[in-house]
Amino acid sequence: MTVSKDMKIIDILKLDRETANVFLRHGLHCLGCPSATGESLEDACMAHAIDADVLVGELNSHLAAV
């Protein structure tokens, strides 16, 4: 499975809990907050001024290596 910007953060974490480290490196520390279950990755990135394309790329690289 590959990550896309329209996925919910919680769904990405369910793919592999170690993706949390990628989120944390990018400054997304709200992994356990209610927004993580309802907000898309793209929305979270916009709210935190994070480049969604870069984050998606790193998440997919991580998942490919697992």
Count up the domains: 1
Helix content: 55-70%
SSE order, as H and E? HHHHH
Q: What kind of assembly state do the chains in view correspond to?
A: single chain
User: Helix tally?
Assistant: 5
Shape: globular
Quick structural gist:
The protein has 66 residues and is an all-alpha fold.
Main traits of this protein?
66 residues, mainly alpha
What do these coordinates show?
This protein has 66 residues and is mostly helical. It has one domain (9-65). The chain is built from 5 helices and no strands. The protein starts with 8 loop residues before the first helix and ends with a helix. 15% of the residues are buried.
Give the secondary structure arrangement, pairings included.
Elements: H1 9-15, H2 19-25, H3 35-38, H4 41-47, H5 52-65
